[in-house]
Design a protein that fits this description.
Chain A is an alpha/beta fold and 341 residues long. Chain A is built from eleven helices and twelve strands. Chain B has 329 residues and is an all-alpha fold. Chain B is built from 16 helices and two strands. The radius of gyration of chain B is 24 Å and the shape is globular. The chains are: A alpha/beta (341), B mainly alpha (329). The interface between A and B is medium-sized, with 31 and 21 residues.
Chain lengths: 341, 329
C-alpha cells in the first residue's frame, strides 16, 4: 500500500437483513483515500453513500451488517507500520472507539438531529475531547473554545452554554465541524454536511471545510448528491449507484471526460447558466430499482442508453482502469465481469 | 427557572380553591344536615344533647344560611387549622388524619422510589435488547402486572405467606409498635413491614412505567444523535444513559403528577385488605358511615397531594428539559 494512502477500502459489502429480504446496501465498493486528499462520493439517495461511511466507522446498526471486504487504515503516527484492517476490530471495542472521533471524525448530515436538545453545546463538545484526551473539564473547555473560534463561531465562550435549538443552521453545522476537529483527526468524513442549510451558508461552510482541510492537510471523504458541491471541494470522485461504484477518478477527468453512461447522464442533468429559462432539464429515465428487487447484471442497465442486450442484463461489470487514475465498471469499456454468485 | 417555579406556585391557591369547592359539594351531598344526623347518632347511642348546644352547632356550621356561607365558614375554619369533628369517631379530624397522612406519604414515596428503581433498568434493557429473551420475559411479566388487580396480588401474597410460613403480613407495624410514639425502633419496625405493601402497590405502576420507557427509548435509539455519539467513540452503555434515556424519561417524569395521587388513592382497597394504617381505609369507613366532614377533608387532602405531586413533576421536568424551561419562563 502506497505510504500516502491512509484508508483503503477493498470490496466492501454491507447488507441489511430485513424481514422483506436482504438489501445489498453496499455491494463491493473499493477506493483509496490519501493524506491531504478530498474524496467525493456522489450518488442518488439510497445508493449506499452513507452506509459506506458508517461501515468505515463501524457504526452500522442492526439489522445492517458489514459482511465482506477489507477496510485498511493507517493509524496516527505510525506511518511506517503496516495498516490495520478495521474489520478485524470489534465495533464496540476499545481500539475501534479510540479511532472513532479521535482519528476518524464524522460531520453529520443534520446537525440539529445529531445534537442532543437537552445538553448544552459545551457539554457535548467537552465530552468529545474527554473521550480521547486525559484532560480536566476546564482544559477541555479551552480546547473547544479555541476550535469554535477557528471555525468562525463568534463569542465561543458564551456559545458553550447554549442549546442546539438556540443556534442558526449554519452555526450548528460549524459546531459539528468544531466537534469533529477537537481531537485533531487525520481523516474527516463529511456526510452531506451542506444539505440541511441554505445556499449562502452552504458556500460559507464549504469554504471553511476547504480551508481547514488545506491548513491541516486533512484527508477527507465528502458525501453529497450535489455535483456542483463535488466540483468545488473534491480532488477525486467516486460515483455510486445502488451500492456499487460505477466510475471513479480525479475530479477533472470525471467532469470533463466521463466514461460511464450514468456519470454522463448525471452531468447532463445539471442546469447550466447558458440554458434557456423554459428549457426542460435532461433527466435520467426510469427510477432507482427497489433494493429488494435489484436487476440482474449491471444495476444501471434498465435506465442506460448504452444497454447491450444479453450482456448487461446477465453479467455484472467490474471496475476496470481506463487510464492510470480513472476506472469504470461498464461493458462499453471492458468485458471484465464479476463471477456470478 | 425561578420564574417558572413562581408561576407554578401562584397557580396553587387557585387550584386548591376549586378543589375545596368540590370537596364541599361532597360534604353536602347526603340528604339531611350534619347536626340532625349527629343528634340522631347520639340518640341511637343512648345519649342526648340539649337544644342550646344543638343551636350552637347549627350556628357554627351556618346550617340555616345559604350554601356559600356554609362553605365560607367551613373553609375559613380549615384555613385556621380546625378540620372539624368526626361524627363517627367523636374525635377531631386532624387527630385522626395526622398520623395516617404521614404513613400514607411515606408509603407513597417508598412505592414511587421502588417503581422507578425497578422500572428503569427493565425498560432500558428491554429496549436496548429488543426481542431478546429478557424483553419477552418482561413483556409477559408486565402484562400480568398491569392486568392483575393489586388487591388480588395482596390477597394471594397474604394467603401464600400465611399458608406456607404461618406469618401474617398485614399492617405496617408489629403489634407492640402500633400505638407507640415515634422512635428509632419504631422506624426500623416500619421499614421491616413497608416493603410488602410497597411491592404490591408498585407492581402495577412498575409494569406500566417499564412499558412506557421501553417504547420511548425505542423511539430515541435510532435518532441521529445516537449515531453521532457512537461516531465520537463513546462506549455504548454510557451513551444510552446519557442521551436517549434523558429524552425518554421526560414522559415518565410528567406521569409523576398523576402517579403519585394514584398511589395514595389507589391504595384504598389494598390498604383495607392489608389493614394498613393509612388514609385509604379511613376514607372508606367515613363514606360507609356518612361521616361527611371526615370524607370531605380526606378528599381535599388527596387533592392537595395531587397538586403537590404535579407541581413537583413540573419542576423536575423543567429542570431536566431546557426546552420546557425556556418556553415557560
Amino acid at each position: 500500500m502506497n505510504p500516502d494512502i491512509i484508508l483503503s477500502i477493498r470490496n466492501l459489502k454491507t447488507r441489511f437483513f430485513l424481514d422483506e429480504g436482504t438489501a445489498k446496501a453496499v455491494d463491493g465498493v473499493s477506493f483509496d483515500v490519501s493524506r491531504g486528499q478530498v474524496v467525493g462520493i456522489v450518488g442518488e439517495s439510497g445508493c449506499g453513500k452513507s452506509v459506506t461511511i458508517k461501515s468505515i466507522l463501524g457504526i452500522v446498526q442492526k439489522p445492517g451488517e458489514v459482511v465482506g471486504g477489507e477496510i485498511f487504515y493507517r493509524r496516527r503516527d505510525d506511518g511506517v507500520q503496516e495498516p490495520i484492517n478495521l474489520r478485524d476490530l470489534d465495533d464496540r471495542g476499545e481500539e475501534m472507539r479510540d479511532i472513532r472521533g479521535n482519528e476518524i471524525a464524522l460531520i453529520p448530515q443534520e446537525p440539529m438531529a445529531a445534537l442532543s436538545p437537552v445538553h448544552t453545546i459545551g457539554n457535548q463538545l467537552i465530552e468529545a475531547v474527554r473521550l480521547h484526551r486525559d484532560v480536566s473539564r476546564e482544559e477541555a473547555a479551552n480546547i473547544c473554545i479555541a476550535r469554535m473560534g477557528e471555525v468562525g463561531i463568534s463569542n465561543p465562550e458564551e456559545r458553550m452554554g447554549v442549546y442546539s435549538w438556540e443556534l442558526s443552521g449554519g452555526l450548528r453545522q460549524r459546531v459539528m465541524i468544531a466537534m469533529a476537529l477537537v481531537c485533531g483527526p487525520k481523516l474527516l468524513i463529511a456526510d452531506e454536511p451542506t444539505t440541511a442549510i441554505d445556499v449562502t451558508t452552504q458556500a460559507q461552510v464549504l469554504n471553511l471545510l476547504r480551508r481547514l482541510q488545506k491548513e491541516q492537510n486533512l484527508a477527507m471523504i465528502f458525501i453529497t448528491h450535489d455535483l456542483g458541491v463535488i466540483a468545488q471541494i473534491a480532488d477525486y470522485v467516486v460515483v455510486m449507484y445502488l451500492g456499487r461504484v460505477m466510475e471513479q477518478g480525479p475530479v477533472d477527468d470525471i467532469f470533463h471526460n466521463p466514461q460511464h453512461p450514468y456519470t454522463s447522464a448525471l452531468l447532463a442533468s445539471i442546469p447550466t447558466i447558458h440554458s434557456g429559462t423554459r428549457e426542460e432539464l435532461p433527466t435520467i429515465g426510469g427510477s432507482i430499482p427497489h433494493p429488494f428487487n435489484r436487476p440482474k447484471g449491471c444495476p444501471f442497465y434498465p435506465r442506460c442508453p448504452g444497454f447491450i442486450p444479453g450482456k448487461c442484463d446477465r453479467f455484472t461489470p467490474v471496475p476496470s482502469p481506463v487510464s492510470d487514475k480513472q476506472s469504470v465498471a461498464c461493458f462499453l469499456h471492458s468485458d471484465a465481469a464479476e463471477e456470478t454468485e | 427557572m425561578l420564574v417558572f417555579i413562581l408561576k407554578r406556585l401562584m397557580l396553587l391557591p387557585v387550584l386548591m380553591f376549586v378543589f375545596s369547592i368540590v370537596s364541599f359539594i361532597l360534604i353536602q351531598a347526603p340528604p339531611g344536615d350534619f347536626v340532625t344526623s349527629y343528634v340522631a347518632e347520639l340518640a341511637a347511642s343512648g345519649s342526648s344533647m340539649d337544644q342550646v348546644q344543638i343551636e350552637a352547632l347549627r350556628n357554627l356550621y351556618g346550617l340555616d344560611q345559604p350554601a356559600y356561607v356554609q362553605y365560607f365558614k367551613w373553609i375559613s375554619r380549615i384555613l385556621q387549622g380546625d378540620l372539624g369533628l368526626s361524627l363517627d369517631f367523636q374525635k377531631p379530624i386532624s387527630e385522626l388524619i395526622g398520623q395516617r397522612l404521614l404513613l400514607t406519604v411515606i408509603l407513597g414515596l417508598a412505592t414511587l422510589i421502588f417503581t422507578f428503581m425497578v422500572a428503569l433498568p427493565i425498560g432500558i434493557i428491554s429496549a436496548t435488547r429488543q426481542y431478546s429473551f429478557f424483553d419477552y420475559f418482561f413483556t409477559v411479566f408486565n402484562y400480568v402486572g398491569v392486568a392483575t388487580p393489586t388487591f388480588m396480588t395482596a390477597l394471594i401474597l397474604m394467603w401464600f405467606a400465611f399458608s406456607n410460613f404461618g406469618i401474617t403480613i398485614t399492617g405496617l407495624f408489629s403489634p407492640e409498635f402500633a400505638d407507640a410514639s415515634w422512635s428509632f425502633a419504631k422506624a426500623v419496625d416500619l421499614a421491616k413491614h413497608i416493603w410488602l405493601p410497597m411491592v404490591i402497590l408498585g407492581l402495577d405502576g412498575t409494569a406500566r412505567l417499564a412499558r412506557i420507557l421501553r417504547a420511548n427509548l425505542l423511539d430515541e435509539l435510532n435518532k441521529p444523535y445516537m449515531e453521532m455519539a457512537r461516531a465520537k467513540g463513546m462506549p455504548e452503555w454510557k451513551l444510552v444513559l446519557k442521551y436517549p434515556l434523558r429524552l425518554a424519561i421526560n414522559p415518565l417524569v410528567s406521569s409523576l403528577g398523576w402517579y403519585l395521587p394514584l398511589i395514595f388513592s389507589g391504595s384504598l382497597i389494598v390498604a383495607t385488605v392489608l389493614n394498613l394504617p393509612t388514609i385509604g381505609p379511613l376514607l372508606l369507613r367515613s363514606l360507609i358511615s356518612q361521616d361527611m366532614f371526615l370524607a370531605g377533608t380526606i378528599v381535599l387532602t388527596y387533592f392537595g397531594l395531587a397538586v403537590i405531586g404535579t407541581l413537583l413533576s413540573d419542576i423536575l421536568l423543567a429542570w431536566l428539559d431546557p426546552r420546557i424551561r425556556m418556553e415557560e419562563a
